Amino acid sequence: MQIDILGYYGGYPANGVGTSAYLVRSGDYALLMDAGSQALLALEKLMSPADLDAVLLTHYHHDHTADVGVLQYNRQLSPDKSKVSPLPIYGHTMDPLNFASLTFGPFTKAMGYTADSRLTLGPFDLSFLATEHPVPAFAVRITERSSGKTLVNTSDTRMFAGLRPFATGADLLLADANFLADKPEPKWHLTAPEAGQLAAAANVKQLVLTHLPQTVDLQLMKTQAQVAAGEVPVTLASEKQHFEL
User: Fold this and answer.
1) What is the structure's pLDDT at 78?
2) Which residue, 188, 131, 126, 210, is CA-closest to 164?
3) What pTM was estimated for this model as a whole?
4) What are phi and psi for residue 75, nearest 5 degrees?
5) How far apart are CA 196 and CA 192, in angstroms?
6) In which element (H, E) is residue 151 found?
7) CB distance 207 to 168 below 8 Å
């Protein structure tokens, strides 16, 4: 399993870097997980968008979906080049209007999931966990069948008890970490120490802090997470970052 960070800011792009978007590949299968602002530009540096096999959206906030529309236009304007047509875009069904928008003519097709769904997408098995966020959002667990390697993305969430069992044993944990330790309530994202605590409690192999803030000392954020994570190595998501599990 290969994971590439295409964008890692929460809310809005900054410093030439986009918002949440991740490319997950195994063999010739390519899954785009979230499609935030500038995702398409970042994707084009690694592969043609026409070669995507599927898209998965964790929720419908714009910093996770901003480039869905332009991806749909890309499919419309170069249909003969598409590896898969229509391109399946997986989104939860708790927001009917946003879910319906994932179907665009014959070019993309909305595919629904719920917290109880178990999906088989190419070489990957996927399961979901409803998180605690102002809108319905879902953490995702992706397991590569051939190797058993597992990626968990918390998506956007505050800390709650269900995250630990869902993330347990993951080879790589992408954790929403939008705040430093001193963030007062209400918190709809993890703090850096909470991300570290989750990584340690779930006994993951590696923690990557993502959905990062634009105006916070990120090295301090990493330090706070590492103290809480103990022996679990912590890294900050960065542009063009590549992982192989």
Assistant:
1) 83
2) 131
3) 0.97
4) -70, -40
5) 6
6) strand 150-153
7) no
